[in-house]
Write a structure and sequence with these properties.
homotetramer, 344 residues, alpha/beta, Rossmann fold, Dihydrodipicolinate Reductase, domain 2, 7-stranded parallel β-sheet, 7-stranded mixed β-sheet, globular, N-acetyl-gamma-glutamyl-phosphate reductase activity (chains A, B, C, D)
């Protein structure tokens, strides 16, 4: 199958090229951006001699004529405008941006501070949390790929929310992310001299991934109240850790909770639930499509601590996008995603 | 005044030398460790031509005869054994280790997994959270310097705990620390190749600073229940950020909470309460004795987020130790501590 | 084919597992170390659920009976002792250590300060600089894999040394390496707090890779004199850059020199000669088996600057080892090595 | 004395504030930039409550009326335009930019690719390599502060060039710098995601500091030919290491060379010549005004290796600027510069 990639100004587009360069079923047919005629390796020298394409302008006719799938690796606000061009064409769409994730358009406007796409367009998109929505993804033509923070958070919370074992108003997510999530457009805040040896908290209670998390949690369990969600910027390239706190509804043992997670993820190859007492670090998933989960229960406070780690560019973006494309095209979801974490 | 420093295997001892090298009232008389006759600069080449001392074995007689104050910058378990040698001598003691902080000796045994010092020795130590215990510090001969995590946490929580405005069982502290807090003894976990590009959670619900935090919180407000406290290791040298969550007892505005903090810290030169909407990063206090505090209130959940940042080797160790020594000797607490944060 | 790996205390062993885990022809049969019965993932949690082996003691009989090839990823001094056990057995050997690289045993003793292996053993090893010794590698049973610094240096120098276009006594190599090359045994010098925000020069004129470099250079061109070779430790996990200076024998243009390199490497898929004016950085080869080369000529001084970058754990260790194993077993040298550099 | 600082878009201006904030003789009177009325701490939150000034537009009349000295911490091309406004006024000038360093105006145009200042203006500036031009600095009104690379390089080379003990055409300088030298204007190349875990070579043979180095070397020793000078960007905030190679004119011992350096720098408090066999790292001078020098001699090649390290923002910019201002105003050159390196 042939794939087109739109957008290379963030790192998600580059990561898609890293994944698809060796994919046995998908090949990179074309790479699109507003800049034209520049070889891809000029923008990304690490792809020298690997991706031979030149960047091209977006031409929806040509893309749809030549490709089976198009990946939008664009900033928010772009796919909501471009998608209509593809509406009547024979091509599957995977949108990595946040534009099509929120069913409530007012929420989009409130949190993204941008004009939402039309209701009927948004409604056609299936939310691609691969592990928990596989059946719908399998029949989807248009797919909205989850955000990096929501992926880690939701995979960490799914078993306890679905089984209703935590107090609905007790959820606090303290999330930390590597800086590649901030994209490739230069800004003072992402300069090495500013972020190196640093840790910053940002968008306190205001991150646009909050409604995405709450939408899925309440889909699973209508009783769940608003969550507290904090985001910190780490001086590393890749990786997200979500440290999640929630109070148990009733007394349980760590063994019971651990069994719940083991059962929930036993047939889901990209989620690795660690043994009791073992906790994942972000480097242990770096470059791979894994989400690693660790668990701890504090008897003194009755609080559960869930630690979920992913590579924000892989399971949090390009990796999950390809996993979803695999499912959409009826091939094994692991195809082309056998990346061993790169350590050190 | 003349100072002796015991212990250089952690970075606290080296930081004490950095601070005292230019202190107008204290001078470094001697530096002690188990190694003998080695010039200090062999261990710490950055002190070449600055600290001319050779390392000496600990000789309590000589130290007491020559010095006005001795700083213990030793791992836990050392000062509890050594302190008795100084019991009958004319010398003030500042202990940077955790040995003398917990009044409940069972707690020490439980959390430190070591034999505590005798009750009557521990009782003679005054807890040196400079901003909130200044009167007792002023008359102390023996001082127990707070831990790095407790310093950030307690300075962040003091105003709301003392004023009883948060629910007593709602406190969650998600703390992140630079690696210098782990000391200078080589271990796999602190190697650059293991921690670089990494973020690790450790000692989940088991950190020995938990009882220290709870002891002070309940001293301030007996209603406070056990706290949830998580610690993460950052790939940076210095810095602690405590992201603290607590639910308000009753509705307040961010302006009211901010005013509470401004009032609480208005005469405390090393605490900088940031304006509403402005949040401190760890680098903005690096190398200085400041504790910077930011505040946010989430109306959706009724939770307060308090962000407190310090340099773990300064306000979290050597800086606060010298601040306390200043107070103990009746000089201005800021003396010799006018370090501007080093940025970048 | 089945592979055994001996040695996991350095990162070379772990990288071999990362490469072989997905190799279409080789599978990991067993992993050996002095520790026994511990699952591999205990030592390397990133391999959880990927490498299911337990560590085993070295049993040469069993290894030879079960495997087609054994990789030694051991510190210097180990394979020189262990190799004799394999001498009479039907198994190919790839030695990643420095023990079998120097034909002159006195040089080994001088630079490694250890007892060399017997002459007849060393002589049986073929030096595995894949790009320049392919024919001999193809028929080798015992292979000595080049050091990381020599790989970058020799690939950078080969074209000009073979064509005799630089002055034989003018070669200066200023090399910089990520810290994974220093292995996984904890030491003060490799702690994050010591190396982060740092750059260290070490083993000035005394690095054990000097005789390895000179042996190959004089094999290519007997006129080459001793080289100046400096090594610096970078605060990064992976990557080597060799900045090489040499004076031209006679006037040339940068175009002529560039053409020489393009011709030399045109059929060598892992060497990417960059266009004139474009220079490789270490991150642009990270995680891959590429060696990237950049060139500059200074008309003011008549000196050529050659920049060669590799990932020290891949082309400098495990990657080249697998490339050599591919050649030794008669399969395409690129098999299982299609790693796209991980960026960022 | 009162000081004005012009320019805060690079980190040199911020570092001047860090140094002057505690200087016993100079105080910060005003800080100037093209932005107006913004508190300094908005731009540099680490200076919150320390530097209370608001940024002001440049008004040469007011500056000269109120201040004794003005520091230009501006990018190249700015002071060459602004300086004329101060020509007829009673105020000393310290220019940290490269505009006034090259006596040969053609060189300025060639290497900086900008219009030079008028000859008579440039001629009035004294070159402020504090250790070697102290007498001229003492009587200077207008001072041109050396570049960061030239400072490390020239302090490393001075003894051997002045004594004429190295071959005039043999000098190669392989320099490595932290990223703060690149300024604070966002660009792709200085983003954390691009430079972290990276090492880049840049401006090969084309760095504008080359003519500055050669100008001083030939002033000291007319026989010196063009040098080879390479610059690499490190993933650290601060620090320069110049690894300098030169061939000895005649045989010497390392002891003789070391004695030469010890003698040359015995009364120069900011240069620390390390003992034989001991080499400085960049972190060991971080935050201080020291230049540390290490030496090695290779008998195999007859080449001397000189390692010189500085903090590029201190001895390479603000520190040396204040050292020069001290000398210009007749006070001890060390005044206000007793910064102990911050380690770790």
């Amino acid at each position: 199958m042939k794939a087109a990639i739109i957008g290379t100004t963030g790192y998600g587009g580059a990561e898609l090229m890293r994944v698809l360069a060796n994919h046995p079923e998908f090949s990179i047919h074309s790479v699109h951006t507003t800049r034209d005629e520049v070889p891809v390796w000029n923008e990304y020298p690490h792809l020298y001699s690997i991706v031979e394409n030149k960047l091209e302008k977006v031409d929806s006719e040509a893309i749809a004529a030549n490709c089976d799938v198009v990946f939008f690796a664009t900033p928010s606000g772009v796919s909501s405008k471009l998608i209509s061009e593809f509406a009547d064409k024979q091509i599957k769409i995977v949108d990595l941006s946040g534009d099509m994730r929120l069913r409530n358009l007012d929420d989009y406007q409130t949190w993204y501070k941008k004009q939402p796409a039309p209701k009927e367009v948004v409604n056609k998109f299936v939310y691609g949390l691969s592990e928990w929505n596989k059946e719908n993804i399998a029949t989807a033509d248009w797919l909205s790929n989850p955000g990096c923070y929501p992926t880690a958070t939701l995979l960490g919370l799914a078993p306890v929310i679905k089984e209703d074992i935590v107090k609905p108003d007790s959820i606090i997510i303290d999330a930390k992310s590597g800086i590649s999530g901030a994209g490739r457009t230069p800004s003072r805040g992402t300069m090495l001299a500013e972020m190196n040896e640093n840790l910053k908290i940002y968008k306190v209670n205001e991150h646009q991934h909050i409604p995405e998390i709450e939408q899925q949690l309440t889909d699973w369990n209508a009783s769940i109240g608003p969550v507290t969600f904090s985001t910190h910027l780490l001086p590393v390239n890749r990786g997200i850790m979500a440290t999640i706190y929630a109070s148990l509804q009733k007394e349980s043992t760590i063994e019971q909770v651990h069994t719940l997670f083991m059962d929930a993820y036993k047939d889901k190859p990209f989620v690795r639930v660690r043994p009791i007492g073992n906790f994942p670090s972000i480097k242990e998933v770096s470059g791979s499509n894994y989400c690693d989960i660790g668990l701890q229960l504090d008897e003194r406070t009755g609080r559960l601590t869930i630690i979920a780690t992913i590579d924000n560019l892989m399971k949090g973006a390009a990796g999950q996008a390809v996993q979803n494309a695999n499912i959409m095209f009826g091939i094994d979801e692991c195809t082309g995603l056998n990346f061993v974490p790169m350590y050190p």
